[in-house]
Structures are given as C-alpha cells and as structure tokens.
Amino acid sequence: MSLPAPRVLYSYSHAATGFAARLTSRQAAHLAGQRSVLAVVPDVMQQLHTTLTPSFLGLSESSGLLPASNGASDVVIGVLDTGVYPIDRVAFAADPSLPPPPGKFRGACLVGAKVFYKGYEVDFGGPINETEESKSPLDTLGHGTHTASTAAGSAVPDAAFYGYARGNAVGMAPGARVASYKVCWKYGCATSDILAAFDEAIADGVDGIIVSAAAGNSGPVESTAINIAPWLLTVGASSINRRFPADVVLGNGDTFSGASLYAGPPLGATDVPLVYGRTAGSKTCEAERLNASLVAGKIVLCDPGVIAAQRDVE
What we know:
Distance between the termini: 58 Å
Keywords: Signal
Organism: Aegilops tauschii
Number of strands: 16
Pfam families: Inhibitor_I9, Peptidase_S8
Shape: globular
CATH class of the largest domain: Alpha Beta
Radius of gyration: 24 Å
Number of helices: 7
CATH architecture of the largest domain: 3-Layer(aba) Sandwich
Strand order of the largest sheet: 3-10-9
Order of helices and strands: EEHEHHEEHHEEEEEHEEEEEHE
Number of domains: 3
Family: Belongs to the peptidase S8 family.
C-alpha cells in the first residue's frame, strides 16, 4: 500500500534550517534516520498563558528613562501573539511627530502584520472557523493587542478600567513600531507556525529576538514556574503601589477588608444575600458547576483555588 505524499507547510531559512511537513509516523521515522537530518520534532500546541507602572518603576520622572529616550522610534518590535486590533485604538493611533519607520525594516501597515495558521489547521484537522475568529492579522481574542500596547502603545490620557486605576496609560517604548505576527488562535499556537513567524520576523528586519515567556499560573508554591531556561526572559505579575480597597459588612456588623474591581451595577444600600460556593455546587466557584438557582442575586463566597480569571455570577 502506498503512503500519502508528505505535505510541506513551511520552509525555514533564517531562524533555523529546516521545514515543517505533515508526515506519517513511518515517514517521520525514515526521515529521522537520514545522516543529514539533525532532528525530527513533533509539532505541538502552545497555550497563551497598567497606568501607574512607568512612574512606579521610576521611568517617568525628569531623570527617568522615558523622558531621556526618543521612545525607541528607531526600533521595530516583533510581537508573536494573537494578532493586533489597531482600529479606533488610541494606543495605536498615528503620531505625526514620529519619523518614518526604520529603513532596515523590510516588512509590509503598525509597520507590518502577518498571519500563520498552517500548522494549527493540520493539528486540528480542518480550517479555522472564520465565524469565530478572523483568518487575518486582526486580533479577535485581545491577548496580542494587550501585549503589543504594553510594549509600544502610545499614551492614552485618562484611561481607566470601569472607573478604576484612572491615569495616563502608555507602553514601555511608545515610539517603537510594532510588527505583528499572528500565530495564536482560539485553542493555542502551533510550534511550526511560531517558528515560521520567527523566520519571517528575521527576514523582515525586526530588532533582535528576546523571548519573553510567562512564568505560568500554577503557583505560588515551589516548582510551579515554567519557561525557566536561562536564555528566556521569564515574566510574571508583581506588586505595585496601588490598592483597590473594599469592605464587606455582614449582617451582624462584622467587617472584612479586602480589594475589589467590581464592575457591575451598584449594589445599593440593601443587604445582599451571601452563599458559600460549596453549598451551591463548587467551593472554588467554577461557573459550570454552580447551581444557578442557588446563587442568583447573591454574593458567592469562594475558597481559593485554580479558577478562571473571570467568573460572572448572575
């Protein structure tokens, strides 16, 4: 019985010398046995893991780095993520005071925006569902737009999150240009697509490659950090000199102080019933396990645990 012909997805020549292809296990084993082949590596899916920060880090004062710099206007930052959505975004608005993009950049708008999905579609056995996400450099998940603006977003006066943390938001290199390479989709990022984007970014002339990778969300106990190789810049959330205090006052008068970023309608002066998540189906308040009839119109008390960043309880 004849084997299906291999399907080449990408050919790499800048970040590495090689190619990505769809192979049977027999074809991959045969290829790995060739003396001219260094390695055959399976394609795997990777997962995607504020306004006061510049002044908190001492960057905004007269002696800080931001006033002393040109905002990195001669730098092109390559962002490999879920794309970017610059339309009607102040952080990506055109700045007439900036000089033209560096002549060394050979990419194509931002100063470049490209998309990579061949590996993702092979891994999932079919085309991307374009009713759910855009098969273009436009960001439909929000992650890439967030990271790109953190790196190089222009100043956004009077920015706030539902009225919280009001101030002037700005990226760390507001004069830099962004070259966006969309490699991540709804269910992850194929390594073959990531390497293809690296290869393209090098060919386009972005300014170097610094791999900034998340420490992960499995902590804070020992041995929970990931991406700890010495050649990576491993990053995670840290403390900042800003608090959002809020008090919970029980019916018996006991008061518990904490923090809140509640963005729903005002609760008013009337008492709101309190229910413990364990008695309503999930002590850690997993939305899909909570009994809706038991938590409707109530504040749900949750035990600490690994839960999603946002849980809406109606």
